[in-house]
Design brief:
about 50% helix, about 600 residues, Alpha-Beta Plaits, DNA-binding, five-stranded mixed sheet, alpha+beta
Length: about 600
DNA sequence: GATGCTAGCGCC
DNA sequence: AAAGGGCGCTAGCATC
């Protein structure tokens, strides 16, 4: 990720910020740069944003790296002050990764405040309002932790991949903070109109929306259950059974198979009720203001390294309401997603040439069909999903068995990961994020003495499916982090340059969803943004996999509304299997 | 009234 | 007999 001119290690000290500047004569070493020496300065909190802005502006070509305990404790304030940084090292996120890594000598990370670093949690907008800004972290010694981490990584034997992982993770933290800062453009009036069309006008507090109120008597009549509340799964299940329907749960997919007058209105009701609950008026009031939705992204929130979000449901933003996401006047969205990210990552991490050859097609599954490996796209997909999730029976299981002969390296790779998990071993992503160790009931299930017990055997298999998927999902998340980190840097160079131009004035990332990004950009710069998105993907591939031949083709759309980014929909229409497999197109694959 | 759990469904 | 991974979020419901 380029040469680092200097690391500036930050620590809050009362109402001031103490900054230790460490030259890095030799990248990654802990030795102090004797030519330059450590410089320590103390800056009043009020002057800190300007200090950062100056350093960002004056370090010609080689911006500093800000080393801080936790991006969520530093960066939002800077962004509010109009200051953006090029790069950082997030010690909290790095600590989490290193603490789990089997390549790290954990003694190297041990310090007086180890437990505090272990327990350090990101702050949220909610916390920020509750707690004084330096209450939690003022005693955390970033300099000591930084030194420990550097030593640990240097001695790990995996320095290159781990440094890349920590850099990518840290860049992700910057992206997340920036997205939360600017927000996703979402027009309240469009959303309200959409809700009104689908479920009726905004109801009075406590009342059901009109469309639900309309469906309710139909459902009750069809089941001869005049007081039924369909929102109660228990009551609904009872009513369905009383009506003579043979059901064991009330899932929509199961109800769909049944032939009964209640099914149509009930499924319609469930669908609309879900929308009203998850993304209705209350959601709008809570999470959207002044035309912006703030997703509350938490980088590294998942064991596999995928992000999570808190509160607003950002990671399950329904396709149904993406029409509310509308670019500003004179602006556009550039929407890009990767087709079959995880299968492609698997081909590369296992070094499976046959699979990477099939991946030279924009549709990996068609590539397999075209090369005669499988008969239909549907078969290819069932087999790939089965391999990544651990199907053992049914069509998926059969395809896994067949395709294992065609792609022994890729299929063997996930198989090995599953076996390792079943033996209670830790598995790793491509860059070295380690899976958590089994605890609690899992420890018992994975012990040697557990062999004969059926329920423990089930648990053992389940843990194997987790580690099987971990290596693929986690490595896919790493590719995606490299992608958005590079894209973020490229976007900053597009369009007019100037210190007075803030993030929201330029092309900027507004959403990230595992394998998909949204960039909000002035219309005139959209073509440049499209090129940047593609360049960043190619660069991510090179950074991760070097010369191994693997393609990560993107579907890119320039549009006014997220709903108009229809490459995904078109591809699913073309497919012969959109309805047979789960609602999406597989894991983070499009 | 607060808390923790499950069922169900949304996303990848 | 069947056996697909990772999440968040809501309402309902049991419990304290």
């Amino acid at each position: 990720m380029g040469n680092v001119a200097a690391s500036l290690i930050l620590r809050r000290d009362g109402d001031a910020v103490r900054i230790v500047e460490r030259g890095t004569a030799e990248r990654g070493t802990v030795e102090r740069d004797t030519a330059d020496g450590d410089r320590e300065s103390v800056v009043e909190a009020a002057d800190f944003p300007r200090f950062v802005a100056d350093r960002e502006a004056t370090t010609g070509g080689s911006p500093p790296r800000w080393v801080w305990d936790d991006t969520t404790r530093w960066y939002p304030d800077l962004l509010r002050a109009g200051v953006r940084v090029h790069r950082c090292l997030d010690l909290r996120l790095a600590h989490d990764i290193l603490r789990r890594s089997p390549h790290i000598d954990q003694r190297t990370l041990a310090g007086d405040d180890l437990a505090r670093w272990d327990a350090l949690q990101p702050t949220t907008a909610h916390d920020a309002a509750l707690f004084d800004w330096h209450r939690h972290e003022e005693h955390l010694d970033a300099e000591a932790e930084y030194d420990r981490q550097q030593r640990a990584v240097d001695a790990s034997g995996k320095r290159g991949p781990l440094e890349l992982l920590l850099a990518a993770e840290s860049s992700g933290a910057l992206v997340a903070a920036e997205i939360d800062h600017v927000g996703l453009p979402l027009r309240e009036e469009v959303h309200e109109r959409l809700l009104t069309q689908l479920i009726g006008a905004r109801p009075l507090p406590g009342a059901r929306p009109a469309e639900l109120e309309r469906l309710l008597p139909e459902i009750r009549a069809a089941l001869d259950a005049p007081d039924l509340n369909p929102d109660s799964p228990k009551a609904l299940l009872g009513a369905l059974r009383s009506a003579g329907l043979d059901v064991s749960d009330t899932r929509a997919w199961n109800l769909q198979q049944l032939d009964h007058p209640v099914i149509a209105p009930l499924l319609a009701y469930k669908k609309l009720q879900r929308l009203a609950n998850a993304n209705g008026w209350r959601w709008l009031d809570t999470w959207v203001s002044d035309g912006r939705y703030q997703p509350g992204f938490l980088p590294g929130g998942t064991v596999t390294g995928r992000w999570t979000a808190q509160g607003g449901g950002a990671l399950s933003f329904p396709a149904q309401i993406r029409g509310s996401v509308v670019a500003d006047e004179g602006w556009r969205f550039v929407v890009a997603d990767v087709a079959q990210l995880e299968p492609r990552v698997l081909a590369a991490l296992s070094g499976d040439r046959a699979m990477s050859e099939a991946a030279s097609e924009s549709d990996l599954y068609e590539g397999m069909v075209k090369r005669g490996a499988v008969k239909t796209r549907r078969d290819a997909k069932l087999g790939m999903l089965g391999a990544m999730y651990g199907s053992t029976s049914g069509e998926g299981g059969r395809m896994v068995a067949r395709m294992t002969r065609l792609y022994p390296r890729a299929f063997g790779f996930v198989e090995d990961a599953a076996r390792a998990g079943e033996r209670a071993e830790v598995v790793e992503t491509y860059l070295g994020r380690a899976s958590e160790r089994p605890t609690g009931r899992w420890t018992r299930a994975l012990g040697d003495e557990a062999r004969a017990d059926e329920s423990r055997e089930r648990d053992r298999k389940k843990w194997g499916r987790f580690t099987r998927n971990f290596v693929v999902q986690g490595s896919g998340a790493e590719w995606a982090l490299c992608w958005i980190a590079t894209l973020r840097t490229l976007l900053w160079r597009i369009g007019p340059q100037g210190a007075d131009l803030e993030l929201a004035d330029r092309p900027h990332l507004v959403f990230f969803l595992h394998d998909e990004v949204l960039v909000h950009t002035p219309e005139a710069l959209a073509d440049e943004v499209v090129a940047a998105v593609r360049t960043a993907a190619a660069e991510a591939t090179r950074i991760m996999f070097g010369r191994f031949p693997i393609d990560f083709p993107l579907d890119v759309d320039v549009c006014r509304s997220w709903a108009d980014a229809d490459s995904r929909a078109v591809r699913m229409d073309d497919a012969d299997d959109a309805d047979e497999l789960d609602a999406g197109d597989g894991p983070a694959s499009g």
